[in-house]
Design goal:
Layout (H helix, E strand, L loop, with lengths): L3 E7 L4 E2 L6 H14 L6 H21 L3 E9 L2 E13 L5 H16 L3 E8 L2 E15 L10 E13 L10 E9 L5 H14 L1 E4 L1 H4 L8 E4 L9
Parallel strand pairs: 1-10
Antiparallel strand pairs: 1-9, 2-3, 3-4, 4-8, 5-6, 6-7, 7-8
Helix pairs in contact: 1-2
């Protein structure tokens, strides 16, 4: 199996997430980023953003990913946030097309009517795309008026991409892109950022990893030009 390096272009609204943060340090980072934008934000919204940020930070420490970033800002005066991760894992396959057909069928059966699952073609290769909305994130009781845990709808996009052997001979690697946001009213705005990201993904061999050196991390570059009205 050949080691794979992933490169992509990412909107400047995303900032890397620090892994392994406890709630106090997560809140400090969130507060610092919000204050840097010079806008007052209600404490309850900071609590909500912190919970999401700390959750992702914990997952990073537990699993390890190539890249993870978050965004806090406004669309047309409304506060919004989202998180993005790009990870890799081993996957045995002879033909990416067969792998995509199998994943698409399995994920469609798994999610049923709660998600849109389809096979798509990207410049880097074929992918299975999953778009769903679910109340996986919960606001703790101490932060809710009712005194009970409250579900928060989270919209999510995932793209599962087997690295084509034409890009990296001998590749047996699945790249997964995951974007999640509780700001479901801004889903269309986020899609305008995600489509260019997916189209920018490229793969190449990482020969130094075959020699026993640590595999290089993802090589993101900031997409040029104005991204959106987010800010």
């Amino acid at each position: 199996m050949s080691a794979v390096q992933v490169s992509f272009e990412i909107s400047p609204i995303f900032q890397r997430i620090t892994s392994g943060l406890d709630p106090e340090r997560a809140r400090a980072e969130v507060t610092a980023r919000i204050h840097a934008q010079g806008t007052a934000v209600p404490d309850e919204l900071i609590d909500e953003i912190t919970a999401e940020y700390q959750k992702v930070s914990t997952v990073l420490a537990d699993t390890g990913v190539l890249y993870s970033g978050s965004c806090f800002g406004q669309f047309d005066g409304d506060w919004s946030m989202g998180s993005l991760t790009i990870g890799v894992q081993p996957l045995s396959y002879r033909d990416p097309e067969v792998a995509i057909a199998g994943m698409t069928k399995i994920l469609a059966a798994e999610h049923g009517q709660h998600a849109e699952v389809s096979a798509i073609t990207l410049p880097c290769g074929q992918a299975t795309l999953v778009i769903r909305q679910s109340p996986d994130l919960r606001l703790p009781a101490e932060f809710s008026d009712s005194g009970e845990d409250l579900p928060i709808d989270v919209a999510q996009l995932q793209a599962f991409i087997p690295v084509p052997p034409s890009s990296v001979p001998g590749a047996q690697t699945l790249v997964t892109v995951t974007f999640s946001t509780p700001s479901t009213d801004h889903w269309a705005d986020y899609c305008e950022l995600l489509v260019p990201l997916l189209n920018s993904i490229r793969f190449r061999s990482a020969p130094e990893a075959d020699l026993g050196a640590p595999a290089p991390e993802a090589a993101p570059s900031v997409a040029g030009g104005p991204a959106t009205a987010f800010g």
